[in-house]
Amino acid sequence: MSAVTTIAKLHSPLKELVNTVPDAHFGQSEKDKAEVTEWIEKVAAGGAVKPDGLKDLDAQLAPKTYVVSNYFTAADVALYGALHPILAQLQPALYYSHPAVTRYFDHIQNRPSVRAATEPLSPAFSLVPFDLENAPKLERKADPPKEKKKAKPVEASGSATPVVEEKKSKKEKKDKAPVAAEEPAKPTESAPAGKLPKEKKEKKEKKPADEGSSKKGGNAKAVAEDTGEPVPSMIDLRVGHIVDIMKHPDADGLYVEQIDFGEETGPRTVVSGLVNYIPIEQMRDKYLVGVCNLKPANMRGVKSFAMVLCATSKDGKDAGIELVQPPPGSTPGDRVFFEGPDFEGASPLSQLNPKKKIFETVQPGFTTLESHEAAWVNPATKSVHRVRTSRGVCVAPTFVGASLS
């Protein structure tokens, strides 16, 4: 049974609400579709939300932004509607005791699409106020120390044989290992210093051919494209659109955004430390430039899959931070590149290798010009390469000489 069919089992006005919210997905994969249907069925049957079962639901929602996958679905609308009559009656002490449920509910009820859909159905889904500023801080318990695995005792009887066989097995594996892993033989009486036994020498001479053959196939391009001096075109910049944003449940200075980069897999979850610099109202529904090939990073329990490109005042963070804005008419997924024949046709790396510090090496050249246009200035030649899309140049609204990161 599909989620659309299951919605008919919901009671009014929740059924009308789920059908009205325009951006509520029914699942992007077969697995997600099945989960959305399952959640709606539980809500319809009254099993998803029970006043005495909020503790279990709180544990389920603690690590999640949405109940299915990492994007907003019809299951979230259904669960929000089922929670509404319960949370609307809770006093602070009670909703403080269920922080994940409260955080989740407040996040869903403040989505612009949900608020717009609830207005005709008021007061059934009126805005529930929460005093979250005075909520008690959650105590984080340290993970217990890991116990070291004890070595298994060797049996007395027949103990020599297994040990010999194990050593033999390791020797056989070593002999069968790739030639590239061979180490030069140590000087012995039969092999004087500076010379190798004949067999080893033959294997060593074959090494270049073996290495050459190993570079064929899918890995060759990844290895080749990561070589040479870091250049800005290695960075994958794209236009993104914030479709949802909330404060990080466990970090006061972080936002958790859902950003559409025009991918079939849906919006990416992105964590950015902008709470103290850009109000959440100025972040909602914004178009921006994102760095999309950084290695995903865990940010206080939430995995971030991109980075928002921002301009920091030349006088420092306290003087202001603002989003780098793509040109008018941009759409999610538009390619952002650097002007100049060396960069415009180049393809970015699939993922930046953190050990090579490519972004860190290139970043000092990022700045904003007198025209507020974002650019990369080559530190060696001082040539200026503006950051742009096919529609125009990206800008920082007010900053000149800003640092971009």
UniProtKB/TrEMBL annotation:
| Database matches in PROSITE patterns | GST_CTER, TRBD
**Domain of life from the UniProt record:** Eukaryota
What name appears for this protein in its UniProt entry? tRNA-binding domain-containing protein
Query: Keyword set for this entry?
Result: RNA-binding, tRNA-binding
Where does the GST C-terminal domain start and stop, copy by copy?
Answer: 1-130
Q: Show the InterPro entries listed in the entry.
A: Arc1-like_N, Glutathione-S-Trfase_C-like, Glutathione-S-Trfase_C_sf, NA-bd_OB-fold, tRNA-bd_dom, Tyrosine-tRNA_ligase_regulator
| Region spans: Disordered | 136-229
Q: Which GO terms of the cellular component aspect does the record hold?
A: methionyl glutamyl tRNA synthetase complex
Q: Where is the composition biased (Basic and acidic residues)?
A: 136-146, 164-177, 196-214
The record's SUPFAM superfamilies line, in alphabetical order, gives: GST C-terminal domain-like, Nucleic acid-binding proteins
Q: Which organism's genome codes for this protein? A: Phlebiopsis gigantea (strain 11061_1 CR5-6)
User: Would the keyword Metal-binding turn up in this protein's UniProt record?
Assistant: no
One Pfam family named in its UniProt record:
Arc1p_N_like
